[in-house]
Design goal:
The complex is a heterodimer of chains A (216) and B (195). Chain A has a domain of 119 residues: Jelly Rolls (Sandwich), CATH 2.60.120. In chain A, 31% of the residues lie in helices and 22% in strands. Chain A contains 6 helices and 11 strands. Chain A is elongated. Chain B has 2 domains: 102 residues, RNA polymerase sigma factor, region 2, helix turn helix motif (Rna Polymerase Sigma Factor, Chain: A, Orthogonal Bundle); 79 residues, Arc Repressor Mutant, subunit A (Orthogonal Bundle). Chain B has 8 helices and no strands. In chain B, α1 crosses α5 and α6 crosses α8. The longest helix of chain B is centred in the N-terminal third of the chain and has 23 residues. The chains are: A alpha+beta (216), B mainly alpha (195).
Chain lengths: 216, 195
């Protein structure tokens, strides 16, 4: 049961097509797991349909219809070609799975600091950074604050951010106002998708020194 | 029951849905031309808001309409109006073309996909009725709320860009957007009391 959902501004901005790719990735992954937010997002799509309907029409060039009609004959309906890959062990949902698979070289977990492992996920937007993060059971992420927004989607295991516990599908939405030290539940490693748009603010001087190398 | 509402608005979602279905089932060019005549100028206007008037907007409109023709089989009249479905196609093409980014979306065929619970009968409203209610709710929005929606939907501006443009703190824009959205959502969800 998902308890921590997408903020309204994320739902509307995603439906509007106004989110950078990294944010869209984490929003879409939450939607894959959350029927409630899919319904909220459908309302966002409906708002778009209504605004389109009410937009003052702007007549296309006269020959446009002829050009389009000429292309209809050659157009072919897309076949529903989906590769039916079985769910991976941790149940990573689309679209995250394809993003990780796209770049085979990056599929291995690499040490991320001394306490965690990561798989960076390349996106084209230039304003966000996305990564899969694996925090070993019972370990914590070093205490940090935020200079921007940080969205964390739990994919497996639990993440405790006192007093809340985040489980598969839950979204942890952090901003400048929050300083925290999330801890993976003791039962299993916690795997999550983390997207940020600004460097984190670590308390530890040692971590601040290596921070540029970690790219976080 | 629908006779009581403005025919221009009530007719739209119904007839364009039907036309899309006939494009899907019988590849009917005449139906498609009617859809084109109505939506091409609106899609052109939508594209112009981001890429300016001219060949780029026309090209993106043409791509959108070809995709409408190709994907008509995926349109489900129970899930929303023709305008909503065409909007989502135009929006995705605009992101691909303009920002050279992708807009990741979920895949309902994915084994990890969360199950879809049945819609409770009192929430599952007719798509045409929903469009009608939304129309009234949007018409009642305050000017500053309407501006917020237009900046997001037409100009693809994220929150921080909107807050810069309006000279308002990010938190203010965020809470305004939240209020605007909950008004519109409320119009759809509380409507059951009206019936």
């Amino acid at each position: 049961m998902i308890r921590h959902h997408l903020a309204d501004d994320l739902v509307v901005s995603y439906a509007a097509g106004a989110l950078a790719e990294g944010w869209s990735l984490v929003v879409a992954a939450h939607l894959a797991l959350c029927p409630l937010c899919r319904r909220r997002c459908a309302i966002g799509d409906n708002i778009g349909g209504l605004l389109l309907e009410e937009l003052a029409p702007d007549a296309p060039p006269e020959q446009s219809w002829e050009e389009v009609r000429a292309r209809l004959a050659g157009a072919t309906p897309p076949v529903g070609a989906r590769d039916g890959l079985a769910a991976s062990r941790v149940g990573v949902p689309e679209p995250v799975k394809s993003y990780v698979r796209r770049d085979a070289g990056s599929r291995k977990w690499a040490a991320f600091g001394r306490r965690a492992y990561q798989i960076p996920i390349p996106t084209a937007d230039g304003s966000t950074r996305a990564r899969l993060l694996r925090i070993p059971a019972g370990r914590s992420v070093p205490e940090h604050g935020h200079r921007g927004r940080e969205l964390t989607l739990v994919l497996s295991g639990n993440l405790c951010d006192d007093p809340a516990i985040f489980r598969r599908g839950d979204i942890l939405d952090a901003d400048e106002a929050l300083t925290h030290k999330p801890v993976a539940g003791v039962g299993a490693d916690c795997i999550c998708l983390v997207v940020t748009d600004a460097p984190l603010r670590f308390r530890s001087r040692l971590i601040r020194l290596v921070q540029p190398l970690l790219g976080i | 029951m629908r006779l009581s509402i403005d025919p221009r608005r009530s007719a739209e979602p119904i007839s364009f849905s039907d036309l899309l279905v006939s494009v899907a089932t019988s590849r009917d060019v005449r139906s498609f031309e009617i859809i084109f005549n109505h939506f091409a100028p609106r899609v052109t206007a939508y594209m112009s808001r981001l890429v300016g008037d001219g060949p780029a907007a026309d090209e993106l409109m043409q791509e959108t309409m070809i995709a409408v023709w190709n994907k008509a089989g995926r349109f489900d009249p129970k899930r929303g109006s023709a305008a909503t479905w065409i909007f989502t196609i135009a929006r995705n093409l605009r992101i691909d073309a303009y920002r050279r980014e992708r807009r990741p979306s979920f895949d309902p065929n994915d084994p990890a996909f969360g199950p879809i619970p049945d819609l409770p009968a009192d929430i599952a409203v007719d798509a045409a009725q929903a469009a009608e209610r939304l129309h009234h709710a949007v018409a009642k929005l305050a000017h500053h709320e309407r501006i917020l929606l237009e900046l997001a939907y037409f100009e693809s501006k994220p929150l921080n860009a909107i807050s810069q443009e309006l000279g308002l703190p990010l938190g203010t824009v965020k809470s305004r957007l939240r209020r605007t959205f909950s008004k519109l959502r409320g119009a759809l969800e509380n409507a059951k009391g009206m019936r």
